[in-house]
Amino acid sequence: MLIIGIAGGTGCGKTTVVNQIINELPIGEVGVISQDSYYNDLSHLTLQDRRKTNFDHPNSIDFELLTQHLKDLRDGKSIQQPVYSFLECNRTDETVPTHPRKVMIVEGILILTNPEIRKMFDIKIFVHADSDERLIRRLKRDVNERGWDLDETISKYQSIIKPMHEEFIEPSKEYSDIIIPNNKYNTVAVEIVKSIINEKLV
Ligand SMILES: Nc1ncnc2c1ncn2[C@@H]1O[C@H](COP(=O)(O)OP(=O)(O)O)[C@@H](O)[C@H]1O
Ligand SMILES: Nc1ccn([C@@H]2O[C@H](COP(=O)(O)O)[C@@H](O)[C@H]2O)c(=O)n1
Predict the structure, then answer these.
(1) In this structure, are residues 98 and 80 in contact, taking their beta carbons and an 8 Å threshold?
(2) Mutate-to-test residue for ligand 1 from 137, 138, 139, highest number of ligand atoms within 8 A of CB
(3) Cβ atoms of residues 110 and 169 within 8 Å
(4) Which branch of life, at top level (predicted)?
(5) pLDDT 10s digit of each residue in the chain, 202 long?
(6) b/e string for 86-105 if b means 16 or more Cβ within 10 A?
């Protein structure tokens, strides 16, 4: 199994890059795990309190479960990947059966900050987009898809997202093997990653 980690700040385009990579690859050969599925269970808090959580700190992620799931997949076992609700700011009761594939992609803002997970990646990729680009994309997405209003997102960006990015996410770039510039759609970089994956699949 080839395990690829794809990190980068919020809104840099990780999900988009992953979709571009897996698009056209044989179905059933490549699996995807999102770090978002592994946010800590916050069922003990009210929704109001959950919405105040710092979701950009490494401690917000259940890395223990994510590590265990990656080990299971590497050992050929299927896992039940938790399903996260951005609107509820919590894990749901649902899980998605996720089967081991020849290539597994793990994506998330914080995945290169954790030493144990880092060791499991054969290839570490960091997607870079400038902070103004990321902020614009984030504002649009939070308001349209994730149930936040403009003022909330701006104040969260200033108080949490930006400082956490500078303290944890940007420094984790140094662990990457490949940096993909993604201010604009980067089809060349996507094709290079695809060809690495294709070599593994033949
Ligand atoms: N290179 C790009 N140029 C312009 N918009 C982009 C680009 N990559 C992604 N986007 C858009 O930015 C938003 C965030 O992208 P997404 O892939 O969800 O980022 P991430 O998963 O890193 O948070 C989405 O609306 C997506 O369509
Ligand atoms: N309930 C939540 C949980 C997390 N977030 C934000 O998601 C960002 C990470 O996801 P990306 O797709 O952007 O990589 C992170 O910056 C959290 O602030 C959220 O908005 N709501």
Answers:
(1) yes
(2) 137
(3) yes
(4) Bacteria
(5) 999 999 999 999 999 999 999 998 888 899 999 999 999 999 999 999 999 999 999 999 999 999 999 999 999 999 999 999 999 999 999 999 999 999 999 999 999 999 999 999 999 999 999 999 999 999 999 999 988 899 999 999 999 999 999 999 999 999 999 999 999 999 999 999 999 999 888 7
(6) eeebbbeeeeeebeebebbb
Domain positions in the chain: 2-197
Task: State in Å: Cα 131 to ligand 1 middle.
Answer: 13
3-state secondary structure of 67: helix
Q: 135 in helix, strand or coil?
A: helix
Tokens 């059933």, located at residue: 28
Phi and psi at residue 24, to the nearest 5°: 85, -15
Name the residue with the closest Cα to ligand 2, atom 1. Answer: 89
Class of the CATH-defined domain 2-197 = alpha beta
| Ligand 1 and 12: CB distance under 6 A | yes
Tokens of 111: 């995945």
In this structure, the number of other CB atoms found within 10 A of the CB of residue 50 comes to 16
